[in-house]
């Protein structure tokens, strides 16, 4: 290993003390009662979502070179800080809003978002060997995603006038580039020793899963919880200008291929996080934070950033690319068709489900669909085993 | 003698001492030798206990058998950063009682499993 940023333990401690002092200084300057004064309510929910996520220790022992192990030892200390700082700030915020206990609960709750996030991170950090960890955490996740995301979040927090949250990701992000440099030499060693296929698999695998986490956490936060005035660019623009550009540069450096699913990934930039937002809104009763319905100005912003097919005064949405292709082929043939949702929005059909039954000519519950066997399937009737 | 932090180059150390004693004459006569830590501890790129002990033995026996001095004093002090850092980050274990594969099992260190030479960098 031949890393560019080298540091001694003495320097490490001195640097981190200074960085912590910056966060603690802002924390002390704001009395607890005023932590959230003047903040947009959506922003407060965003902070709740982000206060939730110890890697590196496997590499500190099982990394194959001393420089790798030394960097991983300091990296493990970094990760402990990255947990402690949000826990401390989250604890302060409890006085303002009890839901900030989600920061601590993230590590043990069975809340579904947390189960999914823990599954990814446990798999990436704890169940991985030193090589997989170096490539998937350091090379893909940190270099490709989280280091850039922390910078973006700090900039957004600044525009949202939340200086404590601005300092927190900035404090964490400045550790990232140092221990992220473990990834490059490990990847290079794999490639030099005939393991190109394995390296490509590890990169592709973690790119996709990081994207999944990212669209759910950062995509929805940037475009549905960030106040309009604090948004500089759309999530798609952030992904394109920062994340994709950096990733393609990294791939080119090692002459690796783009992942086989690249086209699908590019296509998803237009809709995946919006679909996830729909899910969050629909199932908001299963979350520890509130979910926003965009107001008129926010909808205009979203329409501007994610243009849909508009003809005349009507906007057309499609379930799939082939459906859009057919529509474009014979537009006049289909242009006037209205789906049930179009009719409800136009006020031609009732929005209330019971009235909608009647409008559709279905008498509930006599005529409406039911479970085929009325829930009397033999397996369904088996007694549920109890302890 | 107070050496400023980070002044780690042997030439600079000898020059700083020169304000107090005639170090150039002492250096020329081998009465004073200042060795860079990496030249002592990382002779072939990485740390090797055998090499370090061998180097100390050679340096001390040279002077002892020279017959010019009654006393030989060897001082080991690490300069504060540059050489020390290199030393700290490049100390690799030389396993004697287990082999490399047992010390770094593939299940935890990962595959492909390569010998340390491939990872030394």
Question: Can you lay out the helices and strands and say which pair or pack?
Answer:
The complex is a heterodimer of chains A (387) and B (121).
Chain A: H1 9-29, H2 41-50, H3 57-62, H4 66-93, H5 102-105, H6 112-126, H7 130-159, H8 163-173, H9 176-180, H10 183-192, H11 196-225, H12 235-253, H13 262-268, H14 272-282, H15 296-305, E1 309-311, E2 314-316, H16 321-329, H17 331-334, H18 340-345, H19 353-360, H20 378-381
Antiparallel strand pairs in A: 1-2
Helix pairs in contact in A: 1-8, 2-11, 7-8, 7-10, 7-11, 7-12, 11-14
Chain B: H1 10-17, H2 23-28, H3 37-41, H4 49-66, H5 82-89, H6 100-103, H7 106-109, H8 116-119
Outline the structure in words.
Chain A has 387 residues and is an all-alpha fold. In chain A, 64% of the residues lie in helices and 2% in strands. Chain A has 20 helices and 2 strands. In chain A, strands 1-2 form a two-stranded antiparallel sheet. In chain A, strand 1 and strand 2 form a beta hairpin. The longest helix of chain A is centred in the middle third of the chain and has 30 residues. Chain A is globular, with a radius of gyration of 25 Å. Chain A starts with 8 loop residues before the first helix and ends in a 6-residue tail after the last helix. In chain A, 33% of the residues are buried. The N terminus of chain B is likely disordered. Chain B has 8 helices and no strands. Chain B has 121 residues and is mainly alpha-helical. At the A-B interface, helix 3, helix 4, helix 7 and helix 10 of A face helix 5, helix 7 and helix 8 of B.
């Amino acid at each position: 290993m031949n890393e560019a940023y080298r540091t001694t333990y003495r320097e490490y401690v001195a640097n981190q003390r200074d960085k912590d002092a910056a966060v603690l200084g802002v924390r002390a300057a704001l009395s607890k009662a005023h932590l959230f004064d003047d903040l947009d309510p959506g922003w407060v929910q965003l902070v709740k979502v982000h206060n939730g996520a110890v890697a590196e220790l496997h590499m500190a022992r099982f990394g194959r070179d001393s420089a790798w192990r030394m960097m991983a030892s300091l990296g493990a200390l970094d990760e402990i800080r990255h947990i402690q700082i949000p826990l401390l700030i989250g604890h302060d915020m409890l006085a303002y809003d009890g839901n900030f206990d989600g920061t601590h609960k993230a590590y043990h709750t069975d809340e579904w978002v947390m189960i999914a996030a823990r599954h990814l991170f446990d798999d990436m950090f704890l169940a991985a060997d030193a090589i997989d960890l170096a490539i998937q955490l350091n090379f893909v996740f940190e270099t490709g995603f989280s280091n850039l995301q922390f910078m973006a979040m700090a900039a957004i927090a600044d525009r949202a006038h939340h200086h404590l949250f601005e300092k927190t990701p900035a404090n964490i992000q400045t550790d990232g580039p140092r221990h992220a440099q473990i990834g490059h030499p490990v990847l290079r060693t794999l490639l030099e020793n005939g393991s190109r296929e394995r390296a490509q698999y590890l990169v592709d695998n973690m790119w996709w899963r990081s994207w999944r986490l990212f669209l759910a956490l950062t995509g929805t936060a940037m475009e549905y919880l960030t106040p309009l005035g604090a948004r500089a660019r759309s999530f798609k623009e952030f992904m394109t200008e920062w994340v994709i550009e950096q990733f393609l540069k990294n791939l080119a450096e090692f002459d690796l291929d783009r992942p086989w699913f690249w086209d699908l990934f590019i296509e998803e930039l237009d809709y995946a996080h919006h679909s996830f937002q729909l899910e969050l809104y629909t199932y908001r009763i299963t979350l520890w934070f509130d979910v926003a319905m965009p107001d008129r100005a926010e909808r205009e912003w979203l329409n501007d950033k994610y243009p849909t097919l508009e003809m005349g005064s009507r906007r057309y949405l499609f379930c799939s690319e082939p459906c859009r292709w057919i529509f474009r082929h014979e537009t006049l043939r289909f242009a006037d068709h209205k789906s049930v949702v179009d009719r409800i929005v136009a006020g031609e059909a009732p929005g209330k489900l019971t009235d909608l039954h009647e409008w559709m000519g279905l008498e509930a519950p006599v005529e409406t669909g039911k479970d085929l066997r009325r829930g009397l399937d033999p397996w369904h009737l088996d007694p549920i085993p109890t302890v | 003698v107070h050496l400023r932090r980070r002044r780690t180059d042997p030439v600079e150390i000898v020059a700083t001492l020169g304000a107090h004693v005639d170090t150039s004459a002492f250096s020329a006569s081998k009465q004073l030798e200042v060795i860079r830590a990496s030249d002592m501890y990382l002779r072939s790129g990485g740390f090797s206990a055998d090499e370090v002990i061998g180097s100390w033995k050679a340096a001390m026996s040279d002077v002892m058998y020279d017959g010019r001095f009654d006393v030989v004093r060897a001082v080991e002090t690490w300069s504060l950063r540059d050489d020390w850092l290199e030393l700290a980050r490049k100390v690799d274990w030389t396993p004697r009682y287990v082999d490399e594969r047992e010390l770094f099992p593939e299940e935890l260190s990962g595959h492909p499993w390569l010998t340390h030479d491939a990872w030394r960098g």
